Prior knowledge:
The chain is of the alpha+beta class. 58% of the residues lie in helices and 20% in strands. It has two domains: 5-55 and 263-423, no CATH class; 73-79 and 95-228, no CATH class. It has 18 helices and twelve strands. The radius of gyration is 32 Å and the shape is elongated.
Amino acid sequence: MIFNAFERLVALRYLRPRRQGGAVSVIAFFSMLGIALGVAVLIVAMAVMSGFRQDLMAQLLGVNGHITIRKDGGRIDADSALVERLMEIRGVVQVIPQIQAEVMVAVGNAATGALVRGIALEDLKSRRLIADNVIAGDIDDLEEGRNVLIGVLLGPSLGISVGDRMAFVLPRRGDDGVVMAPEISGSTVAGIFRVGSADYDAALIYMSLAAAQSVFDLPGQVNAVEVFVQHLDDVDRISAEIEARLGPGYDAVDWQEANASLVTALQVERIATFLILTLIVVVAAFNIISGQTMLVKDKGADIAILRSMGASRGTILRVFLLSGASIGFAGTLLGLLLGVAFSAHIEELGGLLQGLQDSLRQVPVFGPLSDYLEGTIRFLSQMPAKIDPIEVSIVVGTALVLTLLASLQPAWRAARLDPVEALRYE
């Protein structure tokens, strides 16, 4: 082992609280708590960010394809040959031809913008985020005429529900490019869905592919093809292979390119959060330096005696290095346990706080405080958290390295101490 039994015995003995030198033990204790707090906060913050990212990706990729194919001119022949050619690519699991178009939706005097997607009913049913979250009406009714499925927030904004009529206002241009009077196309609301994202719930409309081809004058054609892959890490390779197979004029855009600003913001936020919260561990590491420096000064005579008895400088170095590293190890282990436990039960803790809030509401003195914290507590009870073993390992490794580096300077100073100078005034 790196540290022998004698070095472990002396190092741990120096960490015990004693009548003399109690200040050193107090500093060591608070250094350990600081490291534990920093590690726990880092683990919880990274877990919560991973949970939000997972929910966001589930919503984003539950509505949109992993890769979207478009063609110059906007028209793609929706034949089975195209689907078969794309399915031959290794890693592709599903291909969905569809029509995507931005329209103005009008009901009486109310109007708003929306995104219409025309898709075959069997393909729509395979999108579990949509098919499993139809809260009113029946998704099978899309097969009838120009029935549509709308987001849960779009209905109230227009004052409509299942069975009501709505109109699409479609811009038109003549062959010479002159803007003509818009075309009005009527539809009936067959169902309402909720995916949990305001961007989609307030602006997304689904209709059958045949109806969309009729409304947007694309007989037998589509203007987009969505491709789903088995592994998201393969989207770059598959996108390049799609463009190579389909030839010039086709453009394959993966979900990261389509949401580049969002992906970049998430990455920057994760890195910034990690670096900022790591400062908590850095501050605690400085406390280790101060505590170990005081310990070296307090144990100067002991160091001189050990040196005179034959202990080498390497032995003294390892004793004090182990002393400081033990503080960091104990704090990191405690922070790991606290952070993982809190992250794994964050929703249950939020539920307990919500129950406590309901109890406080019954007390007149605490009523206003309970109402003030209501939004925060409800948010905490619904906060997602996903513990990523790799991120936890990075946090733990960072904390151990920082505390080990913080212990190195005082240990080096102890090893360089001159026994004669240390005993001169004893």
